[in-house]
Quinolinate synthase (Brevundimonas vitisensis), 364 residues
Amino acid sequence: MEATMADGAAMARWTTVQDVTDHVWPKVRDHVTPMEWPVQAELIAEINRLKADRDAVILAHNYMTPDIFHGVGDYVGDSLGLAKEAARSDAKVIVQAGVHFMAETSKILSPDKTVLIPDLRAGCSLAASITGADVRLIKARYPGLPVVTYVNTTADVKAETDICCTSANAVQVVEWAAKEWGVDRVILIPDEFLARNVAAQTTVGIIAWKGRCEVHERFTAADIADMRAAYPGAEILAHPECPEDVLAASDFAGSTAAMTDYVAGRKPKQVVLITECSMASNVAGDVPGVQFIGPCNLCPHMKRITLENIRDCLINMQFEVTVPEDMAERARLAVQRMVDLPPPAIPARYDLFKARHHVAVELI
Ligand code: SF4
């Protein structure tokens, strides 16, 4: 009798969980087994309840796993899109389902909100490649040149920056900075490959830093050739943090937002996304009917964020990310300058004809 009552209670609880998670299942079922799903569904239901209790929103980056991206993300997208949504939101608490520099950017744009990250170890090889002190030395070496900094940097670096950029607007920002400062060269840091790929798209001279994303630097032109041989009909899309010869061998290059737009608009039969693995899984959930083929590389930092630590983060209100006010104020100016530029009509694409021509870059 007791067992029957317990079974009944469990069944009632599962029915409640199903009511609030059934819409998520079709988007994640290719990446979650039916055996795993009840545990994940319970966590998703619990997190969504906790968000309401805490007046919180979850910002989920494109590289989060599909259970997070489709199950608990209130806003999904690239790092800058997320930070802008954070600033627009009325919620008191922001949970950054992403890496530490993203949480800092959210705090910079939303100083009055509590910003939490579920795992403080979620770092980034690119952000770790440079410090504010390095930028001060670069400025001393190239006086009078504007410093354009990729958003994948710490607040300390942003504070030394004239204007930030993303992979979606880097060419536009570089050309704007050269015109504003009346110069023919700009400093574009810290991603060496992004800088090289931008240099191929503009006549503005680029001075670059040797930082790299450990996920994108591993792709090679040989990987692309292997994919073409194995899947002759597949369309190959590369992220501009990849080496130049990878872009030159691809069919399309653009930011994660541009890739999503491309797949949603063209619906190719087979597609290869040369970027972090979860990106393909997440786009697949929104664009059924397209076959996504590897290779891809996992970002170990992004993968530190899980449903379990998001739940714990909301229960314990941990781990808060703060930025000293004077640093935040200077960093905000750099981010805000970029935000104030007119947005491109569509997420920027890299012209692959230009990408096939080598352009010299001065590497610091
Ligand atoms: S994918 Fe690359 S740039 Fe993004 S967090 Fe991971 S290491 Fe950093």
Summary: The domain at 2-122+302-316 is CATH 3.40.50.10800 (Rossmann fold). The longest helix spans residues 2-21. Residues 170 and 198 are 7 Å apart (CA to CA).
